[in-house]
Structures are given as structure tokens and as C-alpha cells.
Write a structure and sequence with these properties.
The complex is a heterodimer of chains A (266) and B (242). Chain A is α+β, with helices and mostly antiparallel strands and 266 residues long. In chain A, the strands form four sheets. A six-stranded mixed beta sheet of chain A has the order 1-10-9-4-5-6. Chain A has a two-stranded antiparallel sheet with strand order 2-3. In chain A, strands 7-8 form a two-stranded antiparallel sheet. Chain A is globular and about 65 Å long. Chain A starts with 12 loop residues before the first helix and ends in a 15-residue tail after the last strand. Helix content of chain B is 33%, strand content 17%. The mean pLDDT of chain B is 92. Chain B has a domain of 159 residues: Glutaredoxin. Chain B is of the alpha/beta class and 242 residues long. In chain B, β2 and β3 form a beta hairpin. Chain B is globular and about 65 Å long. Classes of the chains: A alpha+beta (266), B alpha/beta (242). At the A-B interface, α1, β1, α4, β9 and β10 of A face α1, β1, α3, β7 and β8 of B.
Chain lengths: 266, 242
């Protein structure tokens, strides 16, 4: 652990209060600005979903309408787990660790939540079991869903260096990217796409970051990439060696030579 | 549930992207402002904690310095659970439902995350077990901690009605309030108070709100005023909601 310089300014309670109150005024301003942004977000127009998508869940085939599970609002987490990956992206897993605890509250408030990945359902189920998660997680393996919502890319798109992500063309290096999409289903059964967010747009779902942001050291991401790949691991891999690559995938350390000492450490 | 106006504007994909892009620019600008605020928060001076607080924990008595559990940063969630209560507050329970899952990651960043309440430890432990939480939870019963950090209020204060809360003197309608406080411990074992936020200041840590803020109905609690969070229950006390 790095230690902080102990040269941080130490003051009396009275002096601290003055500084804290000034910061509070700015915090309140920003809370109001965020409230306004949230209103604008809800005023975005909607797009009717005309295509019928078919997903594979643990109990069989599902339509987009099925995912609402009797509620009128649906949040889809686009979880980066491509076919054959064996384990999901470390950043998506980090975020997902915070989900289970919110489900009871969301479901009581007319919101269904589902995670969608392109890996086949058997691969999803195996990883989900390892991580101990309960949220619903289904496969879009045989549908265009991930491509239409711009979180999966064909080898041609990657080769061209022009992948449409977060409302812009970027050179994508991964066949899977992340995001969240929101849908509404009206009383006649029509489904509308209301919102999607990508990149840092889902950071607020990572409760760990929200807490780190109020600590003295902050996120403390000091390289090599200055983002979560510097330190985040699957919650069962913190004690293991290994690293996370630029695409958010965990790379196990090269196996250590087995020595027991009595054979001589040649 | 409030109904959504079914006449919400519906547009083509192309038109939607145009509007979405202009909102994205605003979202990005606001995110930079939040980043700047986080930096400013960390520039706040600190106050040395001189009082010796002793808490009851599942492992016996511990001082504030011992609650750091070998790390240098301590985040305390002031969980509303008064000595006379049988269960903790549902809103705090909603926050706990997800920070419980953050503890493992925060520990990797030199942060110990825990809850402190004024109810005796004998009341905290069965409730924690019922809710299935793992985070450390200490009792400040019998010490001044909750009163000093302005989350518990004396009968005299309640009677007066006007007292310090959230950095003003307007008081608070109940004798227990919620808050998040942050402490730092240096190598010489000195403990410093670095930050506290109250009221809506803690909203950033309330994950269900972040999700609700993205859906068409939003938080959908205006009609519940003056108690907008009246819809929140302990996670095992919601009726089947369909």
C-alpha cells in the first residue's frame, strides 16, 4: 500500500467547517445540475423496437417482451462475455458485484433488470455460478441484438478500425464492448428503446467507485493504464497473480516452476 | 405506479441519435465537473480526532483506530438504528444491500468499509444476520461518536428543534440521521476526520437511485411527499410486486 504524504493540511474544527461549507455549496449546485440532466434524459424521444429478438435463457427461448417480466421498464446490462471467453470482462464483473443487492428494490419499483451477453447460455451459466450472482443473465448468441445496440463487432468492423460505439466511430480492439440500454413497454405491448449509455456513462453503478471518490486516496489508479484494469480483479481472484489486459480480460500469470526446496532450486 | 404519458414522442433512429448525442455532450461535461468536485473534496483539510472513542464489535471492544483493521482509510456508514429500535432503517438497509458487495473491492484500495449505529451490538447482530450482510458493524452505544458526528441528537436538542445537522442549524425531524464519514490514519496511528456528507449528499452512493434515474418513470416518488422514500422496504419485506 502506498502511504500518503502526511503533509496534508490539518486544521481546527472551526476552520474545517468553513472549508466544508464552501464545498457543500458546490456539491448542492452539482446535485441540482444532475437533477436537471435526469429530467432531460427522461424527455428524450423514444424509438419503437420493430425487430423481434430472440434470446436464450436457462429455461429456454425468450423474446424482448418476456424480459420485462410483467413490469413496464427494463434495464439491459450489456455484459462483455463473448463466445468462448470462459470468464467475463473484469470491469463488467466489478460492476455486477453491486447488482444483486439492488434487485429487490428495483423490481418493487416497476423495473426489471437483465444482463445480456453474446456467449452461449451454458458458458454464461458456468461463470455466473462461479461468481455467485443471482441476477437474470441471458444469451443473445443467435440474434442481432448486441450488434444492433452497438456492443458487439464483427471481425470486419474491427479490421476496418471503424466501430460505432458511444455514438461515435472508434477503433475497437475487442469484439465485445459494454453499456446499458433502457426499454419501455406500453399497455398495448409496444416496446420502445428509451436510452443507452456507454463508456464512463455507467460509472455511477459501481458503488465501490462512489465510495472511493470520497476517500483521501480516491481511486488511486496510478498506471500502467490509469483505469480499473490497474487493480480490479474478479472478486475471487484478488489473491491470485496475473493481470488484466486493455480489453478488460483477465490473464493468468505464467505457471510458476514447481519446487519444494529439497530438490534444489535449479 | 404513476402512468407514463403514452403520447411520449416517438421518433426515427436517426433523429433519436441526434438528440442523444447532444445529451451525451451534457453528460460528459457534468461528469468532468463531478471529477473536479472529487478532487476538491480530497483537498479539504483534515481535523485530528483527539477523543478516544471505544466501540462494541463482534470481536469485543475496539477503538476508532482499531476499526481501520490494518488499512489507512476508513469509510463509516452511519446506519440509523437507535437503541430502542428493533430493526435498522429501511433506507439505510437499501444502501447496505449494495455496499456489502463493495467491501471486497474497497479493501484492495486500502479502504475499510463499515457501518456504525447507536443500537447495542446485541441488536445489530441478529438484524445483520437476518439481512444476510457481511460488512463489519460496530455499536457506538454509550459513547459520543454519533452525537459528535451529528447523526444522533439528544432529547434536549430534539426539544429545542434547532441544532447542527448537515452544516446548518435547522435541525432534523428524527433523533437518528444517516451520513457517511471518512477517516484517515497515519503511520503514527493518528486518526483524522477528512469528510462527512449528509442528506442528499449520500445519494451518489445509493445505487438503486442511479438505476431509477435512467428509466422513463424515474424515481417515481413525488406523489409520496413529504416522505418520498416511503416505498422502500427491507429487501425481505417487499410483497410480490406484479
Amino acid at each position: 500500500m502506498s502511504t500518503m504524504s502526511v503533509s496534508h493540511k490539518i486544521v481546527s474544527e472551526t476552520e474545517w467547517l468553513a472549508a466544508r461549507k464552501a464545498l457543500l455549496a458546490r456539491e448542492k449546485e452539482l446535485t441540482r445540475e444532475l437533477d436537471a440532466l435526469r429530467r432531460e434524459r427522461r424527455e428524450l424521444p423514444w424509438v419503437r423496437v420493430e425487430k423481434s429478438y430472440e434470446f436464450e435463457g436457462p429455461d429456454g427461448k425468450l423474446t424482448l417482451a418476456d424480459l420485462f417480466d410483467g413490469r413496464s421498464q427494463l434495464i439491459v446490462q450489456h455484459f462483455m462475455l463473448g463466445p468462448g471467453w470462459k470468464e467475463g470482462c473484469v470491469g463488467c464483473s466489478f460492476k455486477s458485484d453491486h447488482i444483486d443487492g439492488t434487485l429487490a428494490h428495483l423490481e418493487h419499483h416497476d423495473v426489471s433488470f437483465v444482463s445480456v451477453s453474446r456467449a452461449p447460455i451454458a458458458e454464461i451459466e458456468a461463470f455466473k455460478k462461479r461468481m455467485g450472482w443471482n441476477f437474470k443473465w441471458i444469451s443473445s448468441f443467435s440474434s442481432d441484438f448486441n450488434y444492433d445496440f452497438h456492443v458487439s463487432y464483427t471481425p470486419e468492423q474491427i479490421a476496418s478500425g471503424q466501430a460505432y460505439y458511444n455514438y461515435n466511430f472508434i477503433p475497437a480492439s475487442s469484439e465485445e464492448l459494454s453499456g446499458d440500454s433502457v426499454f419501455y413497454r406500453d399497455s398495448s405491448g409496444d416496446i420502445f428503446h428509451t436510452y443507452s449509455t456507454h463508456g464512463r456513462g455507467d460509472e455511477m453503478f459501481v458503488g465501490t467507485y462512489m465510495y472511493l471518490d470520497i476517500t483521501p486516496k480516491g481511486r488511486n489508479e496510478n498506471g500502467p493504464r490509469y483505469n480499473l484494469t490497474d487493480w480490479v480483479r474478479h472478486h475471487d481472484r484478488y489473491e491470485a497473480d496475473g493481470s488484466v489486459n486493455e480489453q478488460g480480460r483477465y490473464l493468468a500469470a505464467a505457471p510458476k516452476k514447481m519446487t519444494c526446496g529439497c530438490e534444489g532450486d535449479a | 405506479m404513476s402512468a407514463i404519458a403514452e403520447q411520449h414522442p416517438v421518433v426515427s433512429q436517426q433523429e433519436w441519435v441526434k438528440t442523444r448525442k447532444s445529451l451525451l455532450a451534457e453528460e460528459k461535461a457534468l461528469m468532468r465537473e463531478q471529477d473536479a468536485l472529487s478532487r476538491r473534496l480530497r483537498d479539504l483539510p483534515w481535523v485530528k480526532v483527539d477523543k478516544n472513542y471505544v466501540f462494541d464489535t463482534s470481536e469485543g471492544k475496539k477503538t476508532l483506530a482499531e476499526l481501520f483493521d490494518g488499512r489507512s482509510q476508513l469509510v463509516v456508514y452511519h446506519f440509523m438504528f437507535g437503541p430502542e429500535w428493533d430493526t435498522g432503517c429501511p433506507r439505510c438497509s437499501m444502501a447496505a444491500d449494495h455496499f456489502d458487495r463493495a467491501v471486497v473491492h474497497l479493501a484492495q484500495r486500502d479502504v475499510t468499509m463499515m457501518a456504525i449505529s447507536r443500537a447495542p451490538i446485541e441488536k445489530l447482530e441478529p438484524f445483520k444476520k437476518r439481512m444476510g450482510w457481511q460488512f463489519p458493524w460496530a455499536s457506538s452505544y454509550g459513547n459520543d461518536f454519533n452525537f459528535d458526528y451529528r447523526v444522533s441528537f439528544t432529547p434536549e436538542e430534539m426539544q429545542r428543534g434547532q441544532f447542527d445537522y448537515n452544516y446548518n442549524t435547522k435541525g432534523f425531524p428524527a433523533d437518528e440521521a444517516t451520513d457517511t464519514s471518512v477517516f484517515y490514519k497515519d503511520e503514527a496511528e493518528n486518526v483524522f476526520h477528512t469528510y462527512s456528507s449528509y442528506a442528499r449528499g449520500g445519494e451518489g452512493m445509493l445505487l438503486p437511485y442511479h438505476f431509477l434515474d435512467l428509466v422513463p418513470k424515474g424515481r417515481d416518488e413525488e406523489h409520496l411527499r413529504p416522505d418520498p422514500m416511503a416505498w422502500v422496504r427491507h429487501h425481505d419485506r417487499y410483497k410480490a410486486s406484479r
